[in-house]
Amino acid sequence: MHPLLLKDNIDKINENIVIAGLDIGKKYMGVAISNPDQSISTPLTTVKRTKFTQDMAHLEQIFADYEVKLLIIGLPVNMDASINSSCDMIYSFIDEMNKYHQISDKIETIMIWDERLSSMEAKELFKNDLSNKKAKEKGITDKLAAHIILQSALDYINSEKR
Predict the structure, then answer these.
(1) Distance from C-alpha of 62 to C-alpha of 147, rounded to nearest angstrom
(2) CA distance 106 to 101
(3) What is the pLDDT of residue 134?
(4) What is the pLDDT of residues 131-145, one digit of tens each?
(5) Which of 39, 86, 114, 149 could disulfide-link 74, Cβ–Cβ 3.0 to 4.6 Å?
(6) What three-state secondary structure class fits 17?
(7) What CA–CA distance (Å, rounded) separates 156 from 162?
(8) Which ranges of 3-84 does DSSP label H, i.e. alpha helix?
(9) Closest CA to 76 of 142, 160, 161, 157
(10) Where do the domains of the chain lie, and which CATH numbers do they carry?
């Protein structure tokens, strides 16, 4: 299953399913989930990356627990919308995830969404409460970035479906 650009595939999004949002980094993955109405994103957890199979096992459990059917993954394009090496890492991750049948058999669709500035926005949310370093150590930035990615995608989906 190749990832689809969300903005070009709104019609492929079924109603009343839970959507997960991922912010994938080299050390951590932030995870957020939607409500079945697809109106609200909730930051869920941060997965510390280890071995790929362990990372997939974490995601598999989350996706099973919340009955996730659609996955939206943030794509960190450059400010001019061009692709960079971080985007290549995301595409490679998706290719490998598609080989992990415990996930690919349950997730109906994988979509990508422009995540420019989501991590910066996540840091801004708590900059007065915690230092960015402490927040990063606690995994707060990653799950908030996933939440921001998913909420912006949900807002877009809902605006386009009206």
Answers:
(1) 15
(2) 8
(3) 57
(4) 555 555 556 888 998
(5) 149
(6) coil
(7) 10
(8) 52-66
(9) 142
(10) 4-161 (3.30.420.140)
